[in-house]
């Protein structure tokens, strides 16, 4: 945050020095718990410190103005005014103290007008101004609590509603020279305030702290974000773009507008890297999807609702959501039957020609954003996507209680298939991989047993060896004729062959891993054993809500899968790490873009 304070301080110094009037007024607004007071105080201190350093060096400090920070808290209605309210209104006023209607907005606007005249030199430049302050001990304003000396060149006025676009309040924004809005995730601000109440002894536990915040501060925060007036900062949409094969770059794109009444704009908070993202980066195509023009990468994301379309009723600004990256047409036979993952007109993030989610903002449809509960963080929210993939695979395999399930592959999807199968009460879940470290992790994550296939002896045909490995697995885990369900999550030909030989008669084999486009497949064995063979792609109806529930309930601890975390600026480094395929790397997550000021 220090760099953000420095950037803003430098901007104010520059603007104030070139300002045509005597003094410069800055308004800083933000929701309760956004850190606006901290920001205003830190910026004011930095400007004054720069002024002092210049003076100590004997340099002229005329271009660095003395700065003062004022809070609008001094314009709270006094307790006597609240006590004079009728029954019911009085109690509500105390519960909602801090809401816009518990301030003396007329007095605040009048003060800002006098401050504007003083700043413009319309009143005596030697004149002192006085502003009220707020006594937190008595919970009452103090008239003329602070003096604004005549040598002050910049006044920073901070408060929740200094930029509110509501009757009377909106006059304030017209009376200042520079408008700064501290934009934060409302859920993070909510948690910060709840913890603050507990630490201050106002509430005894975090649950009570949240209850207190939800009755007042959170409601005020929603209004502040929804009714934001004009701000000076020009916003762009920083994005991580795949320009061509092996050619990626950061680009400042335009902030995407809402195009449909059902659209929402999500500020992306966390994004996991999927193998398909790396595949497009390195090869430029997956099947029929070919990179022909630049696209933004990323599709495993969570974020915070930043804007909603006029028809959206189920989501609000500031709400935490997991973003389902594919939006189907909703009208074709596949969509109407619930298999919208097969819709030929799906707009899927980071699948050519569609942009992905590795941007500050991403536009999608409201019904493909899933609210996540307050106790789930946004990192877990980004992991909903791979859990939903695993939920689809197990759904296709019809995994049921008391079944035996074998999963080929202990990468993120294979591990999650094992975890989802256990959550569905499978009797025995076996993980298979060629990496011992991955198998060790699988054993700790949820698998009942793990198996490292022995290397194929020289001179032995792959098909023959696959059949022998299948027998080794059956014998080691007492699987009898084989498991009820085999979930293949590698795409490797040897695993596919072993999986077919392994599955019990009448059992189900699901192919989820994608490797070579064509492989040698033991079709005779599949027919003789009367296997149900299914493919699995993406997710269908119900998978995302199930994934949210599995994480929220604690049945799957997705945090254990995250081995590496990167900032947005380190995205290319994160992709390179995934490309290297190190056994120690399971899931890589990238933090969303953070404004520099």
From TrEMBL:
Cofactor(s) listed in the protein's UniProt record: Zn(2+)
Keyword Transcription regulation: no
Entry-linked PANTHER family: SORBITOL DEHYDROGENASE
Family: Belongs to the zinc-containing alcohol dehydrogenase family.
Its biological purpose: Xylitol dehydrogenase which catalyzes the conversion of xylitol to D-xylulose. Xylose is a major component of hemicelluloses such as xylan. Most fungi utilize D-xylose via three enzymatic reactions, xylose reductase (XR), xylitol dehydrogenase (XDH), and xylulokinase, to form xylulose 5-phosphate, which enters pentose phosphate pathway.
Name by which UniProt lists this protein: D-xylulose reductase
Annotated keywords: Carbohydrate metabolism, Metal-binding, NAD, Oxidoreductase, Xylose metabolism, Zinc
């Amino acid at each position: 945050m220090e760099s953000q304070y420095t950037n803003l301080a430098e901007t104010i110094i520059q603007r104030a020095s070139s300002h045509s009037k005597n003094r410069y007024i800055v308004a800083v607004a933000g929701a309760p718990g956004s850190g606006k007071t901290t920001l205003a105080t830190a910026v004011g201190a930095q400007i004054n410190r720069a002024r002092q350093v210049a003076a100590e060096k004997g340099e002229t400090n005329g271009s660095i103005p003395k700065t003062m920070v004022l809070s609008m808290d001094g314009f709270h209605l006094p307790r006597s005014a609240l006590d004079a309210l009728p029954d019911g209104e009085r109690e509500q006023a105390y519960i909602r103290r801090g809401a816009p209607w518990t301030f003396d907005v007329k007095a605040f606007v009048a003060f800002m007008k006098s401050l504007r005249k003083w700043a413009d030199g319309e009143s005596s430049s030697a004149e002192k101004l006085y502003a009220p302050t707020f006594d937190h001990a008595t919970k009452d304003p103090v008239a003329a609590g602070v003096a604004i000396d005549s040598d002050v060149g910049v006044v920073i006025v901070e408060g929740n509603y200094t930029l509110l676009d509501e009757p009377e309040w909106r006059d304030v924004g017209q009376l200042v020279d520079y408008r700064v809005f501290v934009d934060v995730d409302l859920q993070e601000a909510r948690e910060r305030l709840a913890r603050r109440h507990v630490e201050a002894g106002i509430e005894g536990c975090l649950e009570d702290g949240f209850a207190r915040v939800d009755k007042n501060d959170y409601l005020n925060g929603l209004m502040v974000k929804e009714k934001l007036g004009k701000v000076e900062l020009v916003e762009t949409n920083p994005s991580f773009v795949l320009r061509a094969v092996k050619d990626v770059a950061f680009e400042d794109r335009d902030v995407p507008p809402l195009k449909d009444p059902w659209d929402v704009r999500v500020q992306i908070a966390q994004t996991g890297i999927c193998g398909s993202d790396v595949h497009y980066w390195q090869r430029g195509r997956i099947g029929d999807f070919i990179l022909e023009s630049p696209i933004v990468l990323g599709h495993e994301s969570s974020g915070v609702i930043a804007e909603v379309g006029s028809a959206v009723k189920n989501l609000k600004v500031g709400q935490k959501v997991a973003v389902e990256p594919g939006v189907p047409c909703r009208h074709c036979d596949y969509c109407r039957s619930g298999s919208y993952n097969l819709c030929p007109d799906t707009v899927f993030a980071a699948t050519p020609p569609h942009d992905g989610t590795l941007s500050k903002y991403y536009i999608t449809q409201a019904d493909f954003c899933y609210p996540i509960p307050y106790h789930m963080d946004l990192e877990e929210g980004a992991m909903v996507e791979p859990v939903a993939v695993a939920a689809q695979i197990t759904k296709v395999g019809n995994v049921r209680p008391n079944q035996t399930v074998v999963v080929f592959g202990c990468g993120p999807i294979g591990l999650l298939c094992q975890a989802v199968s256990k959550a569905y009460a499978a009797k025995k879940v076996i993980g298979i991989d060629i990496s011992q470290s991955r198998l060790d992790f699988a054993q700790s994550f949820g698998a009942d047993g793990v198996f490292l296939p022995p290397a194929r002896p020289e001179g032995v045909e792959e098909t023959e060896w696959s059949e022998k490995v299948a027998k080794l697995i059956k014998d080691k885990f007492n699987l009898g004729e084989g498991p009820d369900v085999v979930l293949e999550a590698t795409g490797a030909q040897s695993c596919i062959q072993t999986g077919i030989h392994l599955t019990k008669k009448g059992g189900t084999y699901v192919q989820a891993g994608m490797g070579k486009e064509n492989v040698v497949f033991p079709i005779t064995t599949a027919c003789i054993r009367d296997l149900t063979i299914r493919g699995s792609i993406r997710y269908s109806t119900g998978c995302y809500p199930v994934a949210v529930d599995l994480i929220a309930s604690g049945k799957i601890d997705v945090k254990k899968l995250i081995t590496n975390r990167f900032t947005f600026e380190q995205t290319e480094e994160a992709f390179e790490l995934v490309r290297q395929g190190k056994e120690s790397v399971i899931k890589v997550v990238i933090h969303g873009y953070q404004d520099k000021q």
